[in-house]
Please model this.
Amino acid sequence: MSDKFVLKENQQNQPQNNQLQFVSREHMLFATPLWQTQIKGVDNQSIKDYCYFLRENTKGVVISNRGGWHSGEILQPIPIALKNLFEQTTAYTNEYCAQITGINDLVLGNFWININGKYTYNRRHDHQNSILSGVYYVDAEGDNIGNLIIERDDNMEFFANTKYKGKTPLTQLTFLIKPLTGFLIMFPSWIHHSVEMNMENRDRISIAFNLVDPGLNLQKYG
Model:
């Protein structure tokens, strides 16, 4: 494996008496990174207004959403705040996230808007034909707004002793993230994820997107 993915250079203990000496290099193989980032300075109100405008003037689609509204088309022009968010998030990904992914030329492939009212949710799914996927929360207030659930992508549950299952980061089966307004969550697109039912008396508004190989031409909605 390339040395640039070595997390720690040679580590060694200091043996005493008859102790063995262990000289180690640590690698993180096939890891599942997840980035949770607060983005300050976004004009969420103008984006929120656009989300509702889109819902009122276009027909939604049903994909992973159960209830709620998933945009089926994007009306131009999009708000300047949303355009800036996509441009700067892409740049952030190709600079900061690239330290882990080793990929620094991703482009925005497609995006869509989710408006989830009370008792609506998104079932388990992934995002094919992309490398990284993200969700930005335009409005997500309340303790019961519905967690984002990230699932591990192997069969660890068949190998780990029940004593350890779910007890450590190595043996954890799922990871729950509470949505918060102004936060961005990004993860590899092949990771299965879902969103719990919104139990608040208000909408959960988010914008999901995919970052893709620049040679891949995707439609402008999910």
DSSP finds two helices and 13 strands in the chain. The mean pLDDT is 90. The first strand starts at residue 6 and ends at 12.
